[in-house]
């Protein structure tokens, strides 16, 4: 049996291009005891994947050259030599970008398809939602009446953070990169105010105008000059969760900016970088809250779905151009 | 009755000079019920005072032009109309730089002179010691075997932080600005390793060499390029306490440097600015530990004492030239 796969052909210098990927056809291995044959349905593309394309130390190891890209995948069991999984089951795993693959039952989680659309397990009910939940609740510790600013607010994580912050009684300001996105954040997702950073000349002033009492919580997916503008308005005892720095991922030099420490010092600000796996022991609790909120309609979710396995590299590159509203997914 | 006082004559642009201060002779007010007449013994000079010379929002309000500088003072009661304090008592207060002054009993704390030299209440048993204690214990949460780097290690706070870290079983590396200071940190205060930043060409490499397992805790009194070098060696899940930024206090422009967020993000690092009063409710507990450690000889303290009330401005300026080992104090 043959399958398509997408491998890392070369490491990007600066912004990645389609040339950094290669589509191949290879043999599928023989299935052994404890394993299943899978066919991918939904493939997650995420900003953190850019970091794994570099050959540098980070919280996840780099992708290897000539080896398939890996990520979150929802797949269907076509054949099983596992006692735990049967043909037709829908599973979630960190899997290679292959149309078909053999995987061990140990690396797969069976999905309850009655709770929500299965793609949600890559998003609001998966790593994305848990990232939003723990970054906001455990690091930022929102209190009712506080002002929360979110950069990359129309991204998969941002849109969930904003809705959880509203549930906690906060005032929520979202920063995004198009009028379509900012409009959607207000009308569909209940954000109080929004800023289109692409059409705003003085971001520092724009944030000051929308946050007359200052910024108590900054959930940062973006970094760079947007963050400079938010931090210039930061309050005493504020909390900043560093979830992503998408504005800087394609930098070829070490980015330079105003030094943060004097501001963080004089205003007693906390800044915490994190990755969702830091909160692994609390995943069940986070999932429980997210599932309830989704079920009760308190959290809405949104996806940008590209069709066709071959579109995976293009969809990933699209993240860095802000082509997604909410979670970016490829449907095989 | 007349007294000398030192007022802020003008706000400094960049590094302060003696011209920014003015020595005056003024009348002492009449003593009223609930008040005492004080004569200053020891006057604290501290890096944070530089911030109060600017007209900018910070954790403490700016000094007023033509008004006395204020700071921690140990004084003797010369005359009392208070039921709580009697002539001869030794007190601590946030007081103006005056040789003699009238003060309300409400703003004074009587000192137990049997515990340690009275000047220690401006240092290891005062704000300095509490700053070291809470910055290290509550923010950095040291674990036995971890590597702790301290900038400004020979300063009043740094020298206490290092000794508390040693009590917690950590490996302690101190950064200071002279061979005399680094030698003293090792031989007198039990630091494991030290770096003289003034004679070290490649700080990043020097820290890497002394911290083969990376930096778990960075207690930062200094900021600027020294911090860049330490943070380049920071570990996953490290904690950075921002206690001071003395390298930047005299900057006239917003200091620029490498952006920190990518490093803090990919290594799940916490950075927390603080001021000791954030931990006000826990002062009694911190004081108890510090007093025990001083009594048991587990923490040694060191002071640089300048003689003469008129020397206060010179002593303050000396802090920015690194003229002090340990706590800088002026004895009237």
TrEMBL record, chains A, B:
The keyword DNA damage does not apply. The chain crosses the membrane at residues 118-136, 148-165. One of its GO terms (molecular function) is oxidoreductase activity, acting on the CH-CH group of donors, NAD or NADP as acceptor. Residues 16-330 form the Enoyl reductase (ER) domain. The keyword Oxidoreductase applies. Gene3D superfamilies: Medium-chain alcohol dehydrogenases, catalytic domain, NAD(P)-binding Rossmann-like Domain. Pfam families: ADH_N_2 (PF16884), ADH_zinc_N (PF00107). SUPFAM superfamilies: GroES-like, NAD(P)-binding Rossmann-fold domains. Keywords: Membrane, Oxidoreductase, Transmembrane, Transmembrane helix. InterPro entries: ADH-like_C, ADH_N_2, ER, GroES-like_sf, MDR_fam, NAD(P)-bd_dom_sf. PANTHER family: PROSTAGLANDIN REDUCTASE, PROSTAGLANDIN REDUCTASE 1. This is Enoyl reductase (ER) domain-containing protein. It comes from Flavobacterium urumqiense.
